[in-house]
Design brief:
Number of helices: 10
CATH topology of the largest domain: D-Maltodextrin-Binding Protein, domain 2
CATH class of the largest domain: Alpha Beta
Shape: elongated
CATH superfamily of the largest domain: Periplasmic binding protein-like II
Strand content: 15-25%
Strand order of the largest sheet: 4-3-5-12-6
Structural class: alpha/beta
Distance between the termini: 47 Å
Amino acid sequence: MNDIVFEHKGLSLERLRLLCNVARMGGIRAAVGDDPVRQSLASRQLKELSEYANVELTKRIGRGIEVTPEGEELVDIGNEFFSKMSTFLQRTHNLPIDFRLGVGDSIFQWQILPNMKEFEDRFKSCKLIPYSYSSSEIIKAVESRKLDAGIVRKSAITDTDLIAKQIGEVHYKLFVPALFCKASRQNQLPQIARVPFCTLTGGGEYARTTIRFLSAFNGHPALNCSSMTQMFAAVQSGQYAAILPENAESGTNITLTKTFTLPELTSFTRQISLIFKPDIRESKDKSAIIDFLSTCF
């Protein structure tokens, strides 16, 4: 049954890994570096792999290349093989098991990081490697086995063969530097229209919800940040207010920063899901990590 795999020349683990790297990194140069000799060799290896598969695995776009749908299919096969082989060899060589987790900066800092001491105590032979992507990017990376699991907004999950386990909710509070609260009685919410706010760049769900919130109070965004951890730093600087996950409150100086819970912030609440391939349960260690991550909310 497997004879067809070996009937033709051109297949090698090196060529298959190259294709996976080109797909992951977005091109030959990104995958092998600036050396023209290595780039030429890589081009030849990809051509030989295409001849083996009897189908074009990559196609030239301008001065670069992109992976074809058939190439992406082979990439999925390769990623699954390399993932399972890595797990096998880590076990047989008694090496630490790498668990690649896709998770946004804010969830990692305020939900996962506080639990890392317990993780290290429970999983001494495992290493958690976080990758910060958007929810849509995390879903794709888990589907293609570039990541073992991901923590994403439930609303971002659509048609997928991944297991999606709802593990909690993220609630938000309004964080305001105490400087802006001095004109009011202690801990009383200042006029939002008079407070400079920071928000996230782009047109994501959080950014859109923030604009709607500020518009309702005649407020305005004064600073755009690329992550919520940057927004947290902006609040800590005493210059800007922000809407942040309520768990961020544990890292604030209560004399310098005031927090407020408002009914209007309920629209920011996010249901959070843990996503993973069903067969990750075949690994005892990774299955246990999945169960652990489910308790971090």
